Amino acid sequence: MRYPTTVNLPFNHEVIRYSFVPLLPGREQPVGEGIWLLLQGNSLLVATDAGGKLALPAGKLPAEVSLSAEPLCIGLYNGVPLRLAAVSRSVALPPEFLAEPFNAAGDRLDDATLSLGGIGMQILHWQKKSRHCSSCGSKLEPLKWNWGKLCRVCNYEHFPAIHPCAIVLVRRGDEFLLARKSEWQPGRYGLVAGFLDMGESLEECAAREVLEETGIVIKNTTYVGSQCWPFPSQLMAGFVADYASGEIKVDESELEDARWFRRGALPDGLPPARSIARWIIDRYMLAAD
Ligand SMILES: [Zn+2]
Fold first, then answer.
1. With CB atoms counted within 10 Å of each terminal CB, which end of the chain scores lower, N or C?
2. What's the CA-to-centroid distance between 52 and ligand 1, angstroms?
3. How many CB atoms lie under 10 A from the CB of residue 226?
4. Are residues 188 and 146 in the same domain?
5. C-alpha angle 181/169/160, rounded to 5°?
6. 15-25, pLDDT tens digit by residue?
7. Phi (first) and psi of residue 112, to 5 degrees
8. How many structural domains comprise the chain?
9. What gap in Å lies between CA 283 and CA 1, rounded to an integer?
10. Is the same domain home to 143 and 203?
């Protein structure tokens, strides 16, 4: 069994460990030109660099790109300020800018850009969802040195909500359990996954999701790694488990199909390379001993 290691996947900090130094709220904002992390709806604004590669825009912004609010410097990227802002969907972009869909399926943004974009998406999502106190409705104020907010009326402190999910690959001899949702492209299968319930450990969540969705009971549930999943704010905790008992009985409200696959007879489609689902499949299914 392999011990869990840092998962070097896009959206995780490991990818930008040596190039990005985060700057927490309340710290002095650096001056001078830098790089832009601009989100327009669910797209990241990029420019084409000299080599034809998509890159975050740098330097002075063209006048047409008006920002919805004062930009926020969220850190230094390769030594220069990285500023985050939302751009209204109604803003018509100049020709040198491109709104690149920021999702799990695209493959045009590099891993570092995805990881920075993920942080930006989560910060903007949190800022949008934390304007008012959910207890009393008063306006919230930012706390210093972290992303939390304070309600001065009821004195409640609010912190960014990151939702944990368990995702699991189940083994039975030389077979592996994969499942598909009806909204996925034809032929694509992935892993069973779901949100943590209250009063549940991640291992219990993995076992419950597999039982509820496929009718299979699992054992030896082992944590293998995790991935930040900023759509909009999840943490995917990855597991492998062994089959214990049961026959496949698909919960049709959640899945279209679930079945056992042998390593040599994989489905036509697998999860995108940037996902922990694929990382687990590649590492524990394709490369299994
Ligand atoms: Zn309050």
1. C
2. 50
3. 22
4. no
5. 75
6. 999 999 999 88
7. -65, -45
8. 3
9. 12
10. no
For residue 126, the surrounding DSSP H or E stretch is helix 111-129
Spacing, Cα 213 to ligand 1 middle (Å): 39
The Å distance, Cα 83 to ligand 1 centre, comes to 30
Distance 146 CA to ligand 1 centre (A): 19
The Å distance, Cα 132 to ligand 1 centre, comes to 8
Which tens digits make up the pLDDT trace of 4-15? 666 788 999 989
CA of 157 to the centre of ligand 1 (A): 8
Ligand 1 centroid, distance to 71 Cα (angstroms) = 26
* CATH code, domain carrying 125: 3.90.79
Q: At 243, phi and psi to the nearest 5? A: -65, 135
Same domain, 88 and 106: yes
CATH number of the domain residue 217 falls in: 3.90.79.10
Residues 258 and 182 in one domain: yes
Phi and psi, residue 220, nearest 5°: 55, 45
pTM of the model: 0.90
Q: Is 7 part of any domain?
A: no
Whether residue 4 lies inside any domain: the answer is no
Distance 123 CA to ligand 1 centre (A): 21
Determine the structural domain holding residue 51 and report its residue range.
Answer: 13-129
User: How distant is the alpha carbon of residue 26 from its chain centre?
Assistant: 26
H/E/C letters for each residue in 39-87? EECCEEEEEECCCCCEECCECCCCCCCCCCCCCEEEEEECCEEEEEEEC
Residue 150 Cα to ligand 1 middle (Å): 8
Tell me if the bond preceding 232 is cis, omega within 30° of 0.
yes
Separation of 153 CA from ligand 1 center, angstroms?
5
CA 159 to ligand 1 center in whole angstroms: 13
- Taking the chain (289 residues) in runs of 10, the rounded mean pLDDT of each run is 68 93 90 95 88 89 87 95 95 90 81 94 94 96 93 96 97 95 94 97 98 98 95 95 97 95 91 92 80
